[in-house]
Structures are given as C-alpha cells and as structure tokens.
Amino acid sequence: MASTAVQDPYARHVLARMSDFFADERTPWPRRLWDIGSVLALEELWEAGHWQAHNVLSSSACDWQRHQLKAILGRDAGLGDRDLRKEITNLLNKPLPDPSPERRRLKEVIGHLRPGYLDRWVTAIAVEESERVKPERFSRTVAAHLLDLGYSGLYLRNWARGLKTARVTATDIAESAAELARARPRTFDVLVALDKVPHRELAEPLPNWLNKGKVGAWLREHGHDTAGFRTGGGFVYQLQALDPLGAADQARQLIDRMTARSEFLRGRRGGVLPLPYIWVAGYDTPVPLEPPARGVDVLSLVYEGHLYKVDSRERIDDALELAAVSNRGALAPAVAGGWAAVESLLVHPDDPQGDGERSGKAIAADRMAAIIACSWPRAELTTLAHRHQPAQPDALSEAIAACTTNRERARLVADALRTGGPEALALRYTDTAAAQRMAALVQNPRKQLTEVSHAFRIAMRRLYRTRNIILHGGATQGVALDASLRTAAPLLGAGLDRIVHASYTEGLDPLDLAARAEVALQLVDGETGLATVDLLEPAR
Fold it and tell me: Which DSSP category does 293 fall into?
C-alpha cells in the first residue's frame, strides 16, 4: 500500500465520510448512511418477485422499486461499462415476475456482478482526479457494499482509521476495500453464558453445552479474566462471519430466539437469562450483549420537556411506544414497530386507494420522507454552528454564541456558506465534507433537497416493503432485513422528532406537518422567499 507525506484531499474526504458511515449511535443522523449497495438492491429486487407472486407485495410496489433502482444504478462504476451494464439495464426495463425468463436471468447476472464489484471500482478510481466520481458517491458506494456483505461497523471503522493513519491514496482505498470484499467468512467460536437455565435437562445433552466449570475453563483458555465470574452454564457456537463482531451479532440473534422461546414457558416464563457479555475466541474484549442503539433519536422529548409527562395519552404516544423497539429490539419486531408508528401517524382514510404509485399505505413513506428532507438542512447547519471553532473568536463565532435558538444559528451558518463557501467555517477535517454539502445546498436548494428527499423516500419505502414481507409473508430472513433497519432507523427517529416537536409546540397534526413539508419542497428558494432553515416553520 502506497504512503504519501500529505494525503490527497479526495482520499481524506472519502475516509472522513466512511468514518461517519461506520460510526456508532453518536453520529448525527444527517451524516449516517441512508442507502444500501447496488448488489444487495438487485438481490432485494429479485426477492421481491417471489413476494409479488405470493400477493405480499403489489405489482406497483415492485415496479416502483425497479424504476428507482434503474435510475440509481446508472451512475455505479461497479456495474462495468459494457456487457454487464447493458444486461442489467435491459432487465430493469422489464417487469420481473416470478416465474419469468427475465427474473431467472437477473439471478445469473447478480452472480456475475458480485465477485468483481469493487475491483471494477478500483479501475474507475485509478484515473486522473478530474475524471473520478465525486468522493461522496465513492465513499457511500463502497461503505454500503462492505456493510451489506456482513462486516460490522466497528471493524470497518478501525479499517478506515488504519488507512487514514497510513495516508493512503484514493486508489489504495479502493484496492483495500476490494481485498475486504474478496475475503471469505471465517469460523468463530462464540461463547454465550447464561445466568439462569430453566429445564437444564434439555440443555445438557446438546453437544455445544458447557457446564459452569467448563465455561470458566473456556474463558481462561482464550485469555479472559474470570475473577468474580458466575454462571449457570453456556453454549459455544461455531459461526461463520467476516469479523469477530459480526459473529457476536449472529450470537445475539441466537440469544433473541432462545429468550423468545422461554417466554412460552409456564411457571418460568422468560426464565432464560443470558449474562451481559458475549465472548469470541481470538477477540480479546468481551462484547456487550446489548447492541448499540440503531439511532432512532427523538430528542424533542427532552428539549420540549415531555420525557416524563405520560399522564395523558395521544396518538403520538402510541406511535412512540410502537417505534421504541426499533432502537434495540430483534430485527423483525423492530421493523414492524417502526413502520407501524409511521403508518399510524401519516395515513388517512381519504388517501388514494388502488394500485397506483402513491396509493395505499406507501404514501406514508413519502410523507415521512418529505418531513425528514425538510429537517435535514437545519439539523446539519446547527451541527456546523457548534463545530465552528476558530483559533481566535471571529465575527461568526461571536454571533453564533449570542444566538438563543438553533434556527438563528443555522441561518448564520447558511449565510456564511452562501457568501464564503465551506472555507468560511473553522472546522476539523471530519466536518469539512458536511460543510461542502451544506454549501451546495444553499447555492441550489431545490436540486439538493430533491436528491435527499428521493433517498429518504427509497429508504422509507424499503422499510414498508420489509414490514410487509415480515407480517404478510411470515418471513424474518429477508435479504435486506438488516440493511433496511440500518438505513431507515436514524431517519425514522428524525421524522418522529419533528412530528413530536410540531405537536408539542404548535399542536400540529402529523398529516398537516407532512403537507407543510411537501409544499415547502416545492416553494423553497422561490418567489415566497422560503429559506432552507424554515422549511418546517409555519408560514409568516
């Protein structure tokens, strides 16, 4: 791997964004990864044909998914530039019902696409910088593909940090990512220890069961401290994964299944109680049993002072209860609860019925996407206002310090970006990419908002499709189940946050807020003077 004295700006931008995409729950939602990779999206489309044949997904939903995918894939260098791209384009121009010759061909195409996907990106990046795709596009595409393959976010974050330390070039990043994509899953021994073991006689005959003495011996053998350790026994699973934390995540799902089954016991209901850690052989640190939250943050509950005001009950309270499981719950209930919250707030009996693009419950996804898109500028501009920290106070930092609302802070930053560009802000490099995106927004609000609204719409509709597959198809192993929740959860939190805020401060109904957002996206930066920081504010 090459090393340079000063890393080139393109590579620095790419690694800064990857650090956002691979970061933990503390990463602000505007900087998260909102989409899945192209290969997984095609696999999801292929799977949709099966569910259309079983009346779980409508033909209009599958056609909408196919048309959107066609528009997105047109810019993906990983699809090649000749035969493979032509075949994919031809297939996406036609319906793909199950069974059909086109759907069978799509499966074969995916088989050819997957192995060399990131290698084709190496070729696309190893050119003059002026000929490359924008770093935002490259970073999103590679990050999504690696996460879709099954790598854990923490493992990839450490990988990106290592590349940053080595001051690599953009080509080095592409080559390293392609090497990760070529890696095969490894077998990891993973220990799940239990505090309580009801009906122990059913566990002891199993070949992977360890009594408490053997659990302690296993931990010591693999270099873990057992001082003060107490357990009733445990299981060692051999799991196939790309990294140790991915294996631990699979173990969490096994524990979820085990504890779910224990809820059906009589007398010892819910009696299976795991210890708060998972141990992976070869990984020095115990992995917390509780996974990181998925980012469904509704901070208005704190800012508006309603966290403990639970003595009255409204529709929003019901929606928040439904969505709460989306943060940490098992995948299937998390998807179902998250979508139920959206549908309960943003569907009305007078909505269009039938089989059209915006008919039925899908319209709720579009309404939520509009609300999220309108909240995006102020959320990111506010973050930049707090991150602007020049070595010596300047006029902008002093003006920001004098502000009493985030609206005022966001407006100041937007004005600074409009007149001075990203260089008007004194930021750490990790914030520079966000400043560049906001500078583009204030210069051309409609174009940028249309693009992000489109991305949010796709993510929320994917959540809706995944929910239908779970509830109407009875399947909890969809190809995009994990990715659907990974991308939609932070957006769900952002939308619910704005709905809660509007309800508490204005008494505004969620459907009225959605209408305000849809109108704002059409009027922004036009004859009415509607500014990007005021998209969800009442007309004045």
Answer: P
Three-state SS annotation for 304-332: CCCCCCCCCCCHHHHHHHHHHHHHHCCHH
pTM (predicted TM-score): 0.94
Pick from 241, 278, 283: which is nearest to 258 by CA? 278
- Distance CA(466)–CA(129), nearest Å, equals 39
Which of 533, 280, 493, 278 has the alpha carbon at shortest distance from 413? Answer: 533
H or E, element range at 466: helix 445-471
The model's confidence at residue 54, banded by pLDDT at 50, 70 and 90, is very high
Q: Quick one: DSSP state of residue 389?
A: -
CB atoms within 10 A of CB 140: 21
DSSP element (H, E) containing 437: helix 429-443
pLDDT digits (tens, 9 = 90+) for 386-434: 999 999 999 999 999 999 999 999 999 999 999 999 999 999 988 999 9
Q: Which long-range contacts (CB under 8 A, 24 or more apart) does 258-263 make?
A: 260/330, 262/198
Q: 515 burial class (0-12, 13-18, 19+ CB within 10 angstroms)?
A: middle
3-class DSSP string for 259-277: HHHHCCCCCCCCCCEEEEE
DSSP secondary structure code for residue 21 in this structure: H
CA distances from 220 to 190, 226, 243, 383, 417 (A): 14, 7, 22, 46, 57
- What's the chain's Rg over C-alpha atoms? 25
